[in-house]
TrEMBL record:
It comes from Brachypodius melanocephalos. It is found in: Membrane. This is Glycosyltransferase family 92 protein. It is a single-pass membrane protein. Belongs to the glycosyltransferase 92 family.
Length: 435
């Protein structure tokens, strides 16, 4: 009798497990189905005004769209890089227009707010929509509802639709230039160092800078090195110049830096072999190799399957200088002369130096500032004897006597070509004579 009881218990348990798993499967299918694109209109002209600005506010000002990108690494999706209020934005829909039959499909979006919000109410977000089959939409609109009139909605061009051959080996992303930036000399030196190390393109998300800096940017744009992405985020949100929330009524940290970095990775996914994420006062200096190409070839060989290479940041305080390379013709240019700053702060006990990255953009899904949040492939910390980040800025350890600093003249290896190239830029932008 007992055994029969056990059997029936077992049967009942199996039954419950089966039903539960069937429900779970059908729930997941429903979930997936609810995100499947559905035709809602046929034979209608695809309306809406095509948007060209970098930041577009949707109705209600809780969602801001930067740009949509085609992403077929797992399934055929449109991934929109945006900024959303992490609590108030619950539902969004992608409206795809399919040519040539003029069918309009609506797809429910998955809203993925990045985990690195640092306490701010607004954060970087991926707004992800499945694309309709047998249609490669060129544009998409975003709406809070699956119903309504698309004629009023802004339309965004979906980038990365066509895979291309790489135009560049290295692209540097600088997010975000703000605060009436005027560190002109150090900026020119960084740009010329990047070029010596093998960079072909520098993408700058520019909020604002000084009049003089505009002149320098114009020179680099005409030369073909710099691409400016306008970044008027403070006309949409209250921005903080801090990276973490201070309970001060601001909406987003550090001028929306994280959103800009993610946009920069997707923007360069099809055109650059590597994307370098660092600031204008930072240079990844190779110690064992003459340039980045040789360094990355060696690093990739030693670390197969790695898509993210992290370099350790080291502070070279701008307050401690060497008398070498005190060039009188540079003294009239505002900003720091990095060749005079070759003393670095020692590591602090129990403090991990932040890192910046060189990544394979096709392997990154989401990035933060000092690490990637989601990627295909491994991340590797590059040892300090291979390369370090030369970061010339205000001292972090202000009370250190000069004797405690470490003299590190790696930068001087490049001095002759750096001086020659900087002088050329100064003379061509007339900064040497006019100031």
């Amino acid at each position: 009798k007992m055994r029969a009881g056990k059997k029936s218990y077992f049967a009942a348990a199996m039954c419950i497990i089966t039903v539960t798993s069937m429900l779970a499967v059908s729930y997941l299918q429903l979930q997936r189905f609810s995100h499947q694109p559905k035709v809602i209109q046929e034979g209608r002209r695809c309306g809406g005004k095509i948007v060209n600005s970098t930041i577009t506010a949707l109705t209600g000002n809780k969602t801001f769209i930067i740009s949509p990108y085609f992403d077929d690494r797992e399934s055929k999706i449109t991934r929109l890089i945006g900024i959303v209020h992490h609590e108030d934005v619950k539902q969004l829909y992608c409206w795809f227009c399919c040519q040539p039959n003029e069918k309009v499909y609506v797809s429910k979006a998955k809203i993925d707010v990045h985990s690195d919000r640092f306490g701010f109410p607004y954060g970087a977000a991926d707004i992800v929509c499945l694309e309709p089959e047998n249609c490669d939409p060129t544009h998409v609109s975003i709406h809070q509802s699956p119903h309504g009139n698309t004629d009023q909605l802004p339309r965004f061009e979906i980038k990365n639709r066509k895979a291309e051959a790489f135009s560049f080996d290295f692209t540097v992303c600088i997010s975000t230039m703000f605060g009436n930036y005027n560190n002109v000399l150090q900026f020119i030196q960084s740009m010329e160092m990047y070029k010596i190390l093998g960079v072909q393109k520098v993408v700058i998300y520019k909020n604002n800078c000084s009049h003089l800096m505009e002149k320098v940017l114009k020179f680099y744009i005409e030369e073909g090195t710099v691409e400016i992405i306008p970044w008027p985020i403070n006309s949409h949100l209250k921005v903080s110049s801090k990276w973490h929330f201070m309970q001060d009524g601001t909406h987003i940290g550090y001028y929306g830096q994280i959103t800009a970095l993610n946009d920069c990775i997707y923007r360069n996914m099809e055109r650059s072999k590597f994307v370098v994420l660092n600031d204008a006062d930072e240079i990844i200096l190779p110690l064992k190799h003459p340039n980045w190409k040789a360094m990355m070839n060696s690093l990739q060989e030693q670390n197969p399957g790695t898509s993210v290479f992290l370099f350790e940041n080291h502070i070279f305080p701008e307050t401690v200088s060497s008398p070498m390379f005190n060039l009188s013709s540079w003294n009239t240019v505002p900003g720091v002369n990095i060749l005079q700053h070759v003393y670095r702060e020692p590591d602090r006990k129990n403090v991990i130096n932040p890192r910046k990255m060189i990544v394979d953009p096709r392997k990154v899904i989401q990035t933060s500032v000092h690490s990637v949040l989601r990627a295909y492939g491994k991340s590797v910390n590059v040892p300090m004897d291979v390369a370090l980040i030369y970061h010339c800025r205000k001292a972090l350890q202000r009370d250190l006597p000069r004797e405690s600093l470490i003299r590190d003249t790696t930068l001087w290896r490049y001095n002759s070509s750096l001086i020659k190239n900087v002088n050329k830029v100064l003379s061509q932008t007339m900064l040497q004579t006019q100031i």
